[in-house]
């Protein structure tokens, strides 16, 4: 039971805000291992193209500033004849032109990519 206003505040929040540090609740901090969290890097699944971080913008006064040139990535569902199914890939527009010219089998063979690991 909470009898006073201060004790009621402590009971309501669940934290001993006005108590000394030794009396405060010690809750263990759960940390996530860095290996379990992974972000997919923005690369082309077929060609392996990634961003160009060494590009420069040149102003009228010839001041040079760094800029990042990103890859034009598209999420595409492509028909794979040999596997008789669709494969979902994140490919650059250059890779799409390569696929249009040679077909997905020859393009994957050219860049040494196993299409079986891309599932729908």
Secondary structure: elements and pairs:
Elements: H1 5-13, E1 52-58, E2 64-69, E3 73-80, E4 85-92, H2 93-102, H3 104-110
Antiparallel strand pairs: 1-2, 3-4
Helix pairs in contact: 2-3
Task: Output the keywords.
single chain; 120 residues; alpha+beta; Ribosomal Protein L24e, Chain: T; two-stranded antiparallel sheet; 24% strand; flat; ribonucleoprotein; Ribosomal_bL28/bL31-like_sf; structural constituent of ribosome; signal; ribosomal protein
Describe the structure.
The protein has 120 residues and is of the alpha+beta class. It has a domain at 52-117: Roll (Ribosomal Protein L24e, Chain: T). Helices cover 22% and strands 24% of the residues. It contains 3 helices and 4 strands; from the N terminus they run αββββαα. Strands 1-2 form a two-stranded antiparallel ribbon. A two-stranded antiparallel sheet has the order 3-4. Helix 2 (93-102) crosses helix 3. The radius of gyration is 28 Å and the shape is flat. The model has no long low-confidence stretch (mean pLDDT 82). This is Large ribosomal subunit protein bL28c. Keywords: Ribonucleoprotein, Ribosomal protein, Signal. InterPro entries: Ribosomal_bL28, Ribosomal_bL28/bL31-like_sf, Ribosomal_bL28_bact-type, Ribosomal_bL28_sf. It comes from Aureoumbra lagunensis.
């Amino acid at each position: 039971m909470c009898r006073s206003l201060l004790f009621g505040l402590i009971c309501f929040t669940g934290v001993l805000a006005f108590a000394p540090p030794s009396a405060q609740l010690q809750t263990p901090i759960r940390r996530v291992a860095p290996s379990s969290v992974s972000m997919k890097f923005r690369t082309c699944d077929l060609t392996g193209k990634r961003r160009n971080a060494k590009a420069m913008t040149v102003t009228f006064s010839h001041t040079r500033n760094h800029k990042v040139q990103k890859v034009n990535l598209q999420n595409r569902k492509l028909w794979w004849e040999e596997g008789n199914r669709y494969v979902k890939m994140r490919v650059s527009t250059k890779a799409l032109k390569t696929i249009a010219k040679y077909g997905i089998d020859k393009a994957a063979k050219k860049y040494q990519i196993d299409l079986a690991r891309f599932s729908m």
